[in-house]
Amino acid sequence: MRTTKTQKLEFGSSAMLGLFLGMHAKHLISLAELSREEILTILDRAEYWASQSDDELPESLKSLNKPIVCNLFFEPSTRTRFSFEVAAKKLNLHVLNFDYKSSSSQKGETFYDTIRTLESMGVGIAIVRSSEEYLLSEIADKIKTTSLINAGAGISEHPTQALLDLMTIKKEFGSFEGLKVSIIGDVKHSRVARSSLHALQRFGANVSLCGPDVFIPDANAFPFKMKVLNIEEALSTADVVMLLRIQNERHNISLGHYRDQFGLTSTRLALMQAHTKIMHPAPFNRGVEIDDELIESDRSLIFKQVANGVAVRMAVLERAIR
């Protein structure tokens, strides 16, 4: 188990807060657009927020302009949507929740016109989840005063999930360099896997994939280093086992067969090293990707990921304030 010391940044002062805010770009659409320094700064700022009480904002934040935040979720979500809402309220930001079914989108209004309408009304931050992969990048240059945050796009990107995964691993192991991570499940259709894989490899982790052949992407079309292991190797060699949800809405697969072949069962737990930790972006299918009794075991970081998600999204929202 790695216990490498990491450098901490103190953000209590107005000067340090100004440095953090001064580094930001307007939008957060892809982690590929951020430098390593920017990512680490977001993680350090998230750790600062995780260490604070909910009683009162620091004096250095009280003078900031408080933008209106709008959650635009065109796909179902529990963790991401409410995590962003909790994060915004902890920062004393005003939050609107966009109802797709009662919006003018049902009348044919384009996504761009929806965002421009909100921008004209003074909405400062738009948090968007959509099944369309390039929805935000296609309009980003046309939006002048509203910061766009990607809360999950198609099967391609989920940057804040990757950030909270990084934060969780960093707090547990202290370093990413040389860490062995096994991602098990539906990698091919997972935006979580793509964003986390990109981030982990960028910081020096060794990432391996595992799953049924239909869930492993084509190496020629996959933009990342790809090492595929069988389930025994994936579990026995990893420092972190990152499980993925079986996405029943995207395909039809026997859940019982998947559990037998690739599920993290109580029996398979014995294959893992004593220090190995379990992660899952959730929602999880209990008894399929992971046995029920392992979800809240001392090996699991799953609900720590959820808690860290609020702190990460506080840092991301703070970064987006113009």
Describe the structure.
- This protein is an alpha/beta fold.
- The chain has 2 domains: 159 residues, Rossmann fold; 147 residues, Aspartate/ornithine carbamoyltransferase (Rossmann fold).
- Helices cover 36% and strands 13% of the residues.
- The protein is built from 11 helices and 8 strands.
- Strand 7, helix 10 and strand 8 form a beta-alpha-beta unit.
- The longest helix has 19 residues.
- The radius of gyration is 20 Å and the shape is globular.
Write down how many β-strands occur, each being a DSSP E stretch of 2 or more residues: 8
Please indicate the percent range of residues in DSSP E strands (runs of 2 or more): 5-15%
Element pattern in H and E:
HHHEHEHEHEHEHEHEHEH
Helical run tally: 11
Shape: globular
The low-confidence runs, each spanning 5 or more residues with pLDDT under 50, are 1-25
List the topology elements.
Blueprint: H1 14-22, H2 36-50, H3 59-62, E1 68-73, H4 79-90, E2 94-98, H5 111-121, E3 123-130, H6 135-139, E4 147-153, H7 159-173, E5 180-184, H8 191-202, E6 206-210, H9 231-236, E7 240-243, H10 255-262, E8 277-279, H11 302-320
Helix pairs in contact: 2-7, 2-11, 4-11, 7-8, 7-11
